[in-house]
Amino acid sequence: MLTVVVGGFFGDEGKGKIVSYLGLRDKPEYSVRCGSINAGHTVVYNGRAWKLRILSTAFINRETKLLIPPGALVKVDLLFREIEETNSWGRVFIDWNTGIIEDQHVERERRDNYLADRIGSTLQGVGVAMVDRVSRRLKLARDYRELKDLLIDVPGTINEALDRGSSVLVEGTQGAFLSLYHGTYPYVTSRDTIASAFLSEIGVGPKRVDQVVVVFKAYVTRVGGGPLPNELSIDEAMKRGWFEKASVTGRVRRVAPFNLELARRAVMLNSATQVAITKIDKLYPETRGVREWSELPGRVRRWIEDLEDQLKTPITLIGTGEDSLHIIDRRREYGLL
Ligand code: IMP
Ligand code: MG
Questions:
Q1: Cβ atoms 290, 279 nearer than 8 A
Q2: Residue 40 alpha carbon, nearest atom of ligand 1
Q3: Neighbours of ion ligand 2 (CB under 5 A)
Q4: Does 323 qualify as catalytic in the annotation?
Q5: Residue 336 lies in a domain
Q6: How many domains, the chain?
Q7: Using the 8-state DSSP alphabet, how is residue 152 labeled?
């Protein structure tokens, strides 16, 4: 069983929370975190919070092994720090061909005024390291002695697990409209961010995918430059309780109401089989912490059902608070569990 989780807007939709829930609930043998260190995924569980930039948020299930695929880019010091912070020694594995970001990439990116001022890059060195990868001079995980004990063949491992009927979770990063190809170019990140791109990153063919979950937040946020239709003022965002700060850079996130047109396109680009929607408690405060569909007020259920009709896709996971378990899971109702 292969499930891919991706973002449907501009990142920060709550993929970290959804993946951490799926880790606990579905108990995948492996969870694969794609992308790179510009993307911060937050987990809140049992009163503790983590902000992860390399490891999958499914780490909260202690039985799940955490993989880093060949298409990812990591920084060695950050990787070791996250293994410590999540207490994950012995269950983190990295592909031989994963790219390594060095301090020089971060320094080079920080000097790039175009990326800093026009694009609003997170300046973590990811784009510059990607340029080096394309120019065939980036060092890979296999070149680092300190990674020796963590190295495996990630595509081989995943495909073999799927052959055995085991489950694998894939955690995409950012969102459809930050995609290098499908986003609001040039205000985009340095990789493709749709489901098929993450399959390529991990080395699994499209026929092996069972579920593609596209995650939306109940409103839209975006950090950095680029278009954001119906953008609200900071005052208005605060008034609505939608004020947020970015987890990697600490910048204030720009805010807009839920955007149906973008959501439809994200469903199309990813061939979504399911939709997850997070933070509905920020639209309807009375839903906070609710875990049963039947306990949602009628008007909230109608809002979700109407959205489901518009997207022609079942809304199976509904986030009602920050904890990994603050979720309504309708997959059984839909015959998906
Ligand atoms: P870069 O990928 O760090 O160069 O940033 C390029 C653009 O993508 C900027 O607008 C960033 O704010 C945005 N971006 C990159 N990663 C993320 C993310 O994980 N969440 C939200 N925005 C991101
Ligand atoms: Mg984020």
A1: no
A2: 19
A3: 12, 40, 247
A4: no
A5: no
A6: 1
A7: E
276: domain CATH number? 3.40.440.10
The residue whose CB lies within 8 Å of the most ligand 1 atoms, and thus the one to mutate among 101, 122, 173, 220, is 122
**How far apart are alpha carbons 272 and 203 in whole angstroms?**
20
Known catalytic membership, residue 306: no
Going residue by residue through the chain, which has 337 residues, state the pLDDT in tens, using 9 for 90 and above: 999 999 999 999 999 999 999 999 999 999 999 999 999 999 999 999 999 999 999 999 999 999 999 999 999 999 999 999 999 999 999 999 999 999 999 999 999 999 999 999 999 999 999 999 999 999 999 999 999 999 999 999 999 999 999 999 999 999 999 999 999 999 999 999 999 999 999 999 999 999 999 999 999 999 999 999 999 999 999 999 999 999 999 999 999 999 999 999 999 999 999 999 999 999 999 999 999 999 999 999 999 999 999 999 999 999 999 999 999 999 999 999 8
Within 13 Å and on the Cβ side, how many CA atoms surround 129? 27
Q: Which atom of ligand 1 approaches the CA of 127 most closely?
A: 4
Query: pTM, whole model, 2 decimals?
Result: 0.98
* Ligand 1 center to 336 CA (angstroms): 33
Does residue 259 belong to any structural domain of this protein? Answer: yes
Q: Which of 121, 220, 228, 244 to mutate to test the pocket of ligand 1 (most atoms within 8 A of CB)?
A: 121
Kind and range of the H or E element at 213? strand 211-217
Q: Give a yes or no: residue 125 inside a domain.
A: yes
Type of residue at 260: L
Residue 334 lies in a domain: no
- Enclosing domain of residue 72: 2-329
CB atoms within 10 A of CB 17: 28
